[in-house]
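SEQUENCE AND FOLD
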Amino acid sequence: MNKNGFAKQNFDKEGFMNLRRMLCAVCVFQLAFTVVCAAQETTIKKVPMKHVAAYSGESMYANYCAVCHGNNGKGNGPAAKALKIVPPDLTRLAKQNNGKFPDAHVYTVIRGDSNEPTAHGAKDMPLWGALFAESSAAIPPDVDVHQRISNLTRYVASIQKN
């Protein structure tokens, strides 16, 4: 016991060195863990747009949208983790709009004409109107682009959940 009534602590040189080694090991482990986590970060590989028939909103969704929004439209596609902003749950758009599906808004966002800064994940989402126009064989491409965006909008409307 020391003069204050507490048990005397014996901090010898060996104990101090063991503590130091332990702290170094923890730091090395933390650094290795950080490197491993960073190496597993998801990246989005950009590929050429596959041509899909304009009449099928479901096929276009599966080929163009599901990679980010998920096959079920819930925003959980394989590329979602690599985006700065999580893709919205497309199955809840009507519910979030007082039970009415926002057709015009969805059409505008898909086309890429929305003035909202977060539409398509702060422009992480492709501007489909421009891409559809570039890939269209129609001259002018306006009718084809409108058909594609309308059919995609109708498909998104069809996957709404209560």
